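pipeline/complex-builder :: batch 7 item 3
reading input block
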Amino acid sequence: MYRDFGTILIFALLGIVLVYVPLLIQRLVAPKNPTPDKLSTYECGEEPEGSAWVQFNIRFYVIALIFLIFDVEVVFLFPWAVVFDELGLLAFVEMAIFLSILIVGLAYVWKKKDLDWVKYRVKYGRGRYSGIIEEKPEGGTVGTS
Amino acid sequence: MIVDYLIDIIPFAADWPGLVFVSVVIFCAVPVFLFIAVYALVAIYGELKVSSFMQDKIGPMGQGVGLHAGKWGLLQPIADALKLILKEDIIPTTADRKLFILAPFIVFIGAFISMAALPFSQTIIVADMNIGIFYILAVSSLGVIGIILAGWSSNNKWSLYGAMRSAAQIVSYEIPAGLSIIGVVMITGTLSMQGIIEHQSGFVWGILPNWIIFQNPFTFLSFFLFFISGVAECNRTPFDIPEAESELVAGAFTEYSGMRYAFFFLSEYANMFVVSGVAAAAFLGGWRSPIPGVLDTPGWGIMWFIGKSMFLIFMMMWFRWTWPRLRVDQLMSVCWKGFIPIAFFNIFGIGIWKLLIG
């Protein structure tokens, strides 16, 4: 056990050295002539406008949340998969129930259109989204999607 | 495995257990690094030549009397490496300096420590841990942290876009990849890389080698799921939206130059090898010969393993020059609406197949 993970630890430490040494060689052999223009942020030759640390699309957050749930689930599946042969039908049925709950979750997210990168329907479209405003049904209330 | 073997044959290992262990591991790690470096040079040259031939060009060639880039341009990757080490190292003044410097280390370590658990042959595997395949899946996602750090610390809009896209893509495609591997684990009943390959001996269906890909129709599908997800995890075309050259300059690595950039590049190639190696070990019999019983010695095992991995890497290059890039919404729907439902279907299929047929 300590041999397996000790090996990995030494690999990781050695990885640091193996990245550091070429950087050191580069520092010795490469030219060093910094100018303010050279050290400015690259923005296709323009003066960079403001900070790049800006607000970001909420989509990425949703994807991260869904990922978290499914990745934890994959971790739960691994021990089950190892002993699947010995446990047989009962384990299969149990895991089928567990997976079904998650698949219902996936179907829900899918139905809610959180898996779509671009939401084609918006409640109050403005600007370039004004053309894709959701049609009001005959009854008058706006749909839940 | 090879570490244990070397410790056993050193006569004074019992007196200095710690020291001997550390030096033996370093003795094993240096060849792994050299392997990555040499393989990267070969792969870069291969990529230049493959792309050229696919576009009906001849690629790098020696000019004149054949001295400039060597015969057939063989020295081209070495010239590239020399150029990168002679480049000025630029860190933008507005960047977050500490994180900027830290990022290539994390990306490279993620790729480097995954190599430790790859089974090159019956005897050559640096750390044959009992959770090998799980470990590789876990540490190969370390790279995401590095890419996010690189994108965030650069203080550059291209970098941030590239990093966010890259993270979304890598974490999304990790799920179908992990679920495909679960099918393999269900069949073999072990997480150890060597155990999985041990399981694939002999014949199946009369004439085919007993590789997991051939064992039932669901595993056949699983292989393609895993491999395509792997291509996406490496940010290779057609999944190269994170560093789409035509729109994001170089994605998360826009501000990097010289050796720092070279390490991202090297890690990308190392990750390609890790993905191909895991695919070869888990689905294509690893170091086993395509004709069971013929040339199945440890020496040939290295050839088979590297040959299978290189074939899969060639497939990645082939993809790159055949298919156009996916759009970002297509990329996400392929994963969440296509691959993940198919991966669940595969798990049920493999389970039922095992219960009914065995």
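note: Chain A has three domains: 2-30, 58-120, 121-145.
queue -> next item
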